[in-house]
Structure formats: structure tokens, C-alpha cells
Amino acid sequence: MRRFFCNFIFLLLSASTQFAGAWSLEEAAKPYSGTEVSMIFLDRPGYNAIIKLLPDFEKRTGIKIKYQIVPYENTREKEELDFSSNGELTVALVDLVWIGEFAEAGWIVPFEEIKKKYPDIIDPNFDINDFIPLILNAFGTWQGKVYGPPFDNYSGLLYYNKDMLKEAGFDKPPETWDELINTYAPKLTKNSKYAFALQSRRGETQSCDSFMRFLWPWGGSLLDAKFHSNLGNPKSQEGLNFRQSLEKYMPPGIVDYDHSDAVNALAQGNVAMITEWSAFYSTLVDPKNSKIVDKLGVAPEPKGPDGRKPALGGFSLAVASQANDKQKAAAWLFIQWATGKEIGKQYVEAGGISGRQSTYKDPALLAKYPFIQPMLDSWQQGVPEYRPRFSEWSKLTDIIAEWGTKMMLNQVSVKQGSDEIGTRTEAVLKDAGYYDGKKPLAQ
Amino acid sequence: MAAIRISKRRFGIAHFIGLLLILFFCIFPFYWMVSSSLKDPQLILSQKPTLTFQPTLENYQDAFQRNVGGSLGISLFVALTTTALSLLLGTPAAYALARFDFRGKRDIWFWFITNRMVSPIVLALPFFLLASNFHLIGNPIVLVFIYLTFNVPIVVWICSDQFRGIPKELDEAATLEGYNSFSIFWRVALPLGAPGIAVSAIFCFIFSWNELLYALILMRRETQTAPVVATSFMSGYQVPWGQIMATGTLVALPVIIFSLIVSRQMVRGLTMGAIK
Amino acid sequence: MIEQRPPANTSTDPVKPSRKGKLMPIRAVPRKTYSSGVIFFLAPAVIVLLAVGIFPLLFAVWNSMHEFILSRARIYAAHGQPFLWFQNYLGLVNDAGFRESLFRTFVFLLINLPIQLVLGLLIALLLHKVGHEWLKNICRVSLVIPLATTLAVVGLMGRLMFNSSFGVVNYAVATVISLFHSIGPLLQGHFQVLHGFWRHVVPSNMIDWLGNPNLAFATVSIMDCWQWTPFCALVLLSSLTLVPPEIEEAAKLETDRWWQVLWRVQLPFMLPGITAILILRTADILKMFDVVYTMTQGGPGNATDLISVYVQRVGFRQVDQGVASAQAIVLLIITIILSRIYIRYFYREI
To answer: A48 burial class (0-12, 13-18, 19+ CB within 10 angstroms)?
Structure first.
């Protein structure tokens, strides 16, 4: 009797574990076969990598993926137009700085809701904690809720020309910004070659790459805890003044340099060091585009007095609220697959960047792509609020872009420019209701 | 006599040089675009612009891989259709404004051109809503109609002046022979107005071909027009110069061919004398 | 009896546009052609334009009087859009950025429009003049090339050509300078003066076209002129074909000076074309966006922040379609006012 009972329990238990271990993509996708999922992609390696792997997904699930490739500058407007007028997008591509806006507007669905509504499609192996914490927090989370996993993420890295450094007597890159400007720069700036190039063109490039980069490592920031301007703080001023003094070691017309110009300056051997996004690694090692393929060195960004606070950029994928039920489930299946453990390694090999810790446990992968280690190191130390992600960022970025470039052109002094930015920023935030409690202080 | 002949010859040379300058002015940047499209991407960004180099077709190969060919077809369809429709609608209207007199004529004439004055930036959302209500997103027909709003005014404006320049005696002669106004329009005005019609056709084609904002917002991947594909390379981080220049060249070519075909009409009507 | 059209310009008085500045019908048209033709000729165009164009325009006006921030779409769906009367418009008065941008755009207009018009006129004259037929044909077709290039690509071409390190423009400048150096010894003393002057204006061979605010403005102007001068030339060319050949011949026999022929005989026929160009170019410059965006994004600083770049920023980056619509309507009104002024002073029915 007892034996029978034990066997019965054992059978019951094994049956239930069979159930739990039986999740497969094909099974979960069966009810949604034939559904169309539509989204926007950019013309960048991370997306081209997923496009290469798409046929496999479509075969296994029967879900059709429709994507459009749109220039980055137009992505937000296309998505916003679509979402605000009941369009057809079912997956939202969310830039780090749009998540506050999209979440507040109710355009994207939190992960918890998806879990509750469609328990069957959740892959038990998905393991959301496998994502690098900073990445998941910065890219996919808003006000404590996770909306979607990170996808196509970057860190700022220091790229340098080993030969130029060696000629000037250096066998390793600078550890700190102080070193860079005092020791390295003077020796590297001569004969029409320059030590550094900082992409500073008016636009997001100026506000994110140029302006913010010289606040955080000095202990400064755009906003203080109460969301008032922190630019007047001596630490912020120190950083911004540092940027001004770096200008003499940079090529003329630097204020107009965009990403491609800075990368190209390094690639053509005109400049010794740049701090650019990790995604540019592939350009710099491509003999078609770069003259310094075998001389390229990669390191994390230099430290400031307050430590290493590298630039943070990238996207996440979320399910769009406007999709119908079937589409929502199909969309989540796609997102889950694209950022899943299964294809992590394949994705990196195809040119993408995975946000998972498990993908990078493979030493062979790390050896093959020298930029991964510095990038992982940077992700351990970054600041999620590198750029505030609330919906007012779109207004603030334009203010910073305008006055940041004016500062660099010496049309206003650093103090004047900072005061201007401060006043205008506070006006925007006041209007939005951050100072009288109408809006929670989330960034 | 000799003095006039000499000054005429000097003028001839000045004329020649002037024309050459025009040619250079128009063509040089275009030449630069074409030559960049044939260069190795590395070479485009090198310190000294090189005038001689090994041409390579890889930029074009890359461009065709991105469905540039299909988009050229869509653009062609849209541009030709909207040009034809604009001429169909615009030339009679231009004739009416040129020949007839009626109350409100001046206002209608001005109203045509105001259609072209509003910035597409704020019309994009309304058009998007309209199109999505009619389930026309992704259908090139919607572009054909939207482009009419800025093409018909051009046709009306240029052709009405052209028609006004046709001597009325020809009209009278035709009326006396028993033709009604439509026949006069068809047989007299259109042939003699050929230069203006040709110019406005070229403009319609060009403006429709190059339009970017509406095409970006209202079309889907399968039905993207050529300029949209040409600019989709701008990922925000990279500028693949070689491919962009190659696509730019491909996008410009059909327009040039179209103008070649149509520009024969632009020579001043020797027919004017013939009809007289 | 049908009146004869007063023969044009056989007098030697300079032609003035009609004093009253109004459109005056040259002569009465027999009633017969009035009733039957007009409706059928005009109706198709008017109906189509109304059908396609009126809804978006009204919608934009409606937007301009309401609050319409795209990211609040769901709130609007639930509670409706706040009606703001003319608040959006009044806000523009305080908006220094809008005013500065508008001012900058007018400066751009005042500099570039005359250049394009005059150059276009010269080109049209050269193409109209008899002689060198084959070269003229090639030129006529090549005029289309600048127009044929996609605006965004024009901006990128500008970036490529005016790049201070590897742009072809600076290369050409450097070549000219080295040529100058090589003939320097022939000029001796004069050379020193000229050289000193040149170096004062252009400190180095690497002219910073895109990084220097003033030069960036100039560069955008150059690209705009490159693209639109042919437009002016083509419109003026088709206007020139309207001049009755006998009158032209007669005038040419009377005087050897081409500018007198131009002023007295050809220009009056070109006035409608000139007015069309003025109105269209004004409207276009107020809408000008793509070229600036791909070339400089409005920078460096504010140097090339033309008004439509500003409006796009408001409408699509700050996604405030309400304010952007108000701005666009204001621009529309400005364009209409300017157009009426052009018509009053330049237009004359031929």
C-alpha cells in the first residue's frame, strides 16, 4: 500500500516536472502561428544580426515578422505617430531616453502584465536576472517596472591608435582624464595630428556624447536630488571647463564633428584617441573603412576624479499596447527569442551585442572580440541616469545641445552657458510638475 | 559692318564660355557624387581628394542588396502617375485662368499657390490619420494624391502664363472656324504652350520623386520610395558614404532621363509661325 | 469688334508695372466663352485639391488651437483635448528661439533669393540666345541635375565636399593658392600685399566650412543656390519663350546693348515668371528642412537653425503638434502676406 502510494507520488511529481520542462518555442507559438508582428529596425549591426537569424524564428513559430528600416533620426517620430493614432506597430523599439515617455504615455506593456496574461508563452529559461543588472535597469526599467529586455546596447569606450601612442612614448592608454590632458595630449598634438576628437555636433551627439561625458566623472550631474539644476556645482563646472581646455588638442571644427567624423578621424590616423560607442568596433577593424586595423587599441573610458562613469546608450524591445491580444503574445515570443539565452552566442557572432551575462562566460568569445571586456567593465560601473530618461528629456536635450555647442564655440562662457541651461531646464521641469509634487522625481 | 561682326564674334566666345561655366556649375557636385560612389569607401575619406582612381562597383552591389531596385520602380510609378494627373487637372485650369474672365478668378488663382505654402511637418499627422482611416498606409496611391497638392499649383502657375502669351488672334481664328473652347484648348493652346508644359512636367516629376517626409511616414518597407531607401542608410551612427552616394546617383538618374525626353519640348515653338 | 491687344513695348519708355498693382484683365473677352467653358476647365483641379488638401489644413488649424502633445494621446482619448484658444499663438511671441530662427531665415532669404534670381536670369538669357545649339541642349538638360538630387543627399554631398580635411573644396582652394604662389615672383611687391591680405582673411588652407558658424551659414546657402538656381533658370527660360520673336528681333536691331533689350523687351514678359519664383522660393525657404538637417542639424550653435528646422524640432522631437501647428500657420500667413506684396509690385499680366 505504502509502496503504491510512494510510487504514485513519485509519478505525480515526475509528471509535473515533465510539464514544467516541456516548454518549447514551437509549442508555445502554435496558437499564434500566422500572426504578424511589425516593428522598426535601424541600419546598425545589432539589427542586421537579428535579421540574419529571423528565418529560423519564422520557421519554428509560423509568426511573420515585418520590419522596416528607418533612419534613427526619424524612428521616434514614426513610432510616436504610429502609437498616437492606433497604427500597426506591435513591438516598440525603445531608446534609453524614450522609456520614460513611452511608459508614461501608456504605449508599452510592462513585463508583469504579459506574464499574468499569457503565462504559457513565458519561457522558464528566460531568466530575467541573467541580464547585466545595470543594463536591465537602465534600458528596460522605468519607475521600478520592467517593460522589456535590453536590445542593442552600447557603452562608451576609449579607442586609441597604438602606434601613435608608442611614437609619443606611451605603451598603454591613459587611465584618467587628467593624465590624458596633461601627459598624453601635448605629446600627441603636432604636425597636423591631434590627440583627441570629441564628437560634438549639435543634437543628441552634443548633449549625450559631449556634454554629459564631462559631468559625471567629475562628480557633477545635470540635476540634483530635488531635480534642480546641478550645473552650478563646482564639480560640474570643473568638468565642463576641462572640456574647454581639451579643445586645443582637438582638430579645428570639432563642434561640427558627428560620430562618423570622429570615428573616421581615428580610422584615417589623424587623431590618436576617441571615446565612442562600442558599436564602432566593427567599423574600426574593417579594412575597407579603417587604416588602423592592426593598430587599434580598446580600453574603458578614462576615469575622472569621481571614478569611471562611461557613456551609456542603447535600446530595449517592448510590447506595444495598441496590439491586439494575439499580436501581443506573438510580439513577446519574438522579443523573448531575440534576447534569449539560446541565440546569445549566435547573435554576437552575427554582429550583435547581447545583454546577458551568460553569453559572455565564454572565454573564446571574449578573446575574439577585444572590445567586449572593456565594455563589460564599463557596464559594471555606469550610471543609469547618465541621461535622464523622463519624457521631458526631448526638450532638455535641445537646450543642452544648443548651449553646449555655444560654450564650445566660446560664444558664451562656461558659467553663462551653464546658467542658461539651468534656468531653462528648471522652467521645463517646473511646467511638467516636478517641483510641486505632481510628478514623481523619476529619471 | 566689320565692327559689328567682330563684336558678334567676341560675344560668341563669351556665350560659349558662359555655357561651359553653367555646365561646370551644375555638373561638378554631381560628378563628385558619382565618382565617390565608384570609389572604395576608404578612398572617399582620404586626405587628398583623388581625381583618378580604380573604379569599383561594390557600392552599387550593396545598394541593390537593399532593395533599391524595387524602390526605384515604386518611385517611378508614383512620379509618373502624379505628373500625368497634375497635367491632366492643371492645364485646363491654367487655360481657364488665362483665357476666361470671371468673378473670383484672381482669388482662385492665388488659392492654387497657397496649397504649396504649408509646411509638411504639420500636415504629416493629419495625412497619416486620413490614410490610416482608409487603410491606405503602404499603398503608393495615397502618395499620388498627396503630391497633387503641390504639383497642380506648379502646373497651373507656369502654364497659365504660357497660355496667356499665345496671341488671341489664333483663338479668334479658330472660333471663326467653328471650334468650341475645348477644341481650341486642345489644338491651339496645348501645342503652343509646350515649353511651359514641359517645364512644369519636369518639376512635377522632380518634386514627386524627391519628396521624403510623406513617403517616410506613409509607406511600408515593401513600398518604400527611392529617396526613403537612400536615406535609410543613415543609422544615426554611421554614414556609409559610398552606398549613400551610389543610391543618390541611382535615384537621380531616372529624373535626368525623364528630363532629357521632355526637354525637347522646351525649345521655343517654331510652330507658332507655322500656324500663323 | 474684337479689340486689338495694345502692341507691347514699341514705345521707348521704360516699362513700369501697373500702378494699381492689381490684376487687370487686358481686355474684355466675349461673353460666349465665359459660361460654357469655365466650370469644366476648373472644376476637376479645384475639387481634387479641396478633397485632398482641405482636411489636413483644417486639422492643423484645429491642432493649433488645442493642446496636442503626442505622448498624451491616451489622456486625450479619455478626457478630450484641452481647448487653448490662441494660447499657442501668443506663446510664440515670447518664444525667443522662434523669433531668432525666423529672423535668421529672413536673412537667408534676403541673401539667397536675389542671387538665385539674378544667376537664374543670366543662365536663362545665355540659353535663350541663338548659337551653339548642341552645347545649349546639353546645358538645358544638365540644369535638371541639381534639382534631381534628393535633398537629403544634397546635404550629405555638402558635408563631403566642404569637409575641412578631405573635402574637395578646400583642396581646390589650396591648389589655387599654390598656383598663386608660383606666379608670385612675377607680381613682386603686389604679391606681398595680396598675400598678406589673403592670409588675413583665410588663416589656413583648411577652411573650416562647417565648424565656423558664419561659414556654415554660407555653405548651406551655397548648396541651396546650387540646387535652386536651375529652377529659376528654367522658369525664366520658359517665360523668355513668350516674347514674340518679331519684337525681339526689332529691338536687337535697334540697339547693340543686350541689357537694354533685356530691360525693355524681355523683362516685362518675364514678370509673371519672376513673381512665381519669388513666391515659390519664399515658401520653400520657409519650409526648408532636409538639406540643413543632414548637413549641420541647425548648428554649429544656432548658425543654421532655419525656421522649419525649429518647427520640426518642436513638432517631432518635443512632439508638441499643437505649438508646431501654430508655428506653421503663422508661417503660412507670413508667406501669404509676402506673396501679396510680390504680386502688387512685380506682377503684370502680359
So the answer is: middle
Q: How far apart are the first and last CA of chain A?
A: 63
In this predicted structure, what is the pLDDT of residue C200?
64
Per-window interface: B 198-217 vs C, CB < 8 A:
198-199, 202-203, 206, 209-210, 212
CA distance C218 to C111: 10
Q: Does B133 touch chain A (CB under 8 A)?
A: no
Query: Would you call B211 helix, strand, or coil by DSSP?
Result: coil
Could you tell me which residue, C38 or B20, shows the higher pLDDT? B20
Inter-chain CB proximity B239 and A70 less than 8 Å: no
What are the tens digits of pLDDT across the range C142-178?
888 888 888 878 888 888 888 877 788 888 888 888 8
B233 contacts A86? CB cut-off 8 A: no
What is the C-alpha to C-alpha distance for residues A92 and C71, in angstroms, rounded to an integer? Answer: 14
> Quick check: A310 and A381 in contact, CB under 8 A?
yes
Q: Rounded to an integer, what is the distance from CA B21 to the centroid of its chain?
A: 23
Contact residues on chain C for A83, CB-CB shorter than 8 A: 70, 73
Give dist(CA C74, CA C206) in Å, integer: 53
Would the CB atoms of B236 and A73 count as touching at under 8 Å?
A: yes
Distance CA A44, CA A300 (A): 22
At residue C17, the pLDDT reads 44
Q: What type of residue sits at position A142?
A: W
Task: Write out chain B's pLDDT in tens, 276 residues.
Answer: 555 555 566 667 888 888 888 888 888 888 888 888 888 777 777 666 666 677 788 888 877 877 777 888 999 999 999 999 999 999 999 988 888 878 788 888 888 888 888 888 888 888 888 888 888 888 899 999 999 998 999 899 888 888 887 888 888 888 888 777 787 788 788 888 888 888 889 889 989 998 888 888 888 878 888 888 877 776 666 777 888 888 888 888 888 888 878 877 665 443 444 343
- Put simply, the answer to whether B108 touches C42 (Cβ < 8 Å) is yes
- For residue B254, give how far its alpha carbon lies from the nearest alpha carbon of chain C (Å): 9
The H-assigned helical ranges of C129-212 are 133-142, 144-148, 151-161, 168-187, 189-201
Asked if C195 has any chain B CB less than 8 Å from its own CB, the reply is no
Interface test with C, best of B86, B122, B185 (most C CBs within 10 A): B122
Other C-beta atoms lying within 10 Å of the C-beta of residue C173:
15
Chain B residue with the nearest C-alpha to that of A263: B238
Q: How many CB pairs under 8 A join A and C?
A: 90
pLDDT (tens digit, 9 = 90+) per residue, A379-393? 888 888 889 998 888
Q: Which grid cell is A175?
A: 587611465
Nearest to C25 among B101, B180, B260 (CB): B101
Partner C contacted by B148 (CB < 8 A): yes
How far does A172 lie from chain C, in Å, by closest CA?
28
* Chain C CB contacts of A251 below 8 Å: 165
C16 has pLDDT over 80: no
Residue of A240, A233, A212 lying closest to A412 (CA atoms):
A240
A254 touches chain C (CB under 8 A): yes
Q: Do A405 and C300 touch (CB under 8 A)?
A: yes
Provide, as residue numbers in chain C, all residues whose Cβ is less than 8 Å from the Cβ of B23.
135, 138-139, 142
SS3 B130: helix
**How does pLDDT run across A305-343, given as a tens digit for each residue?**
998 998 888 999 999 999 999 999 999 999 999 998 888
As a 3-state breakdown, chain B gives helix, strand, coil percent values, each rounded to 5, of 80, 0, 20
The residue that leads in pLDDT, C19 or A246, is A246
SS3 (DSSP) at A192: coil
**Interface pTM, i.e. ipTM:** 0.83
What does the block give as the cell for A166?
Answer: 608608442
Between chains, do A105 and C211 touch, taking CB under 8 Å as contact?
A: no
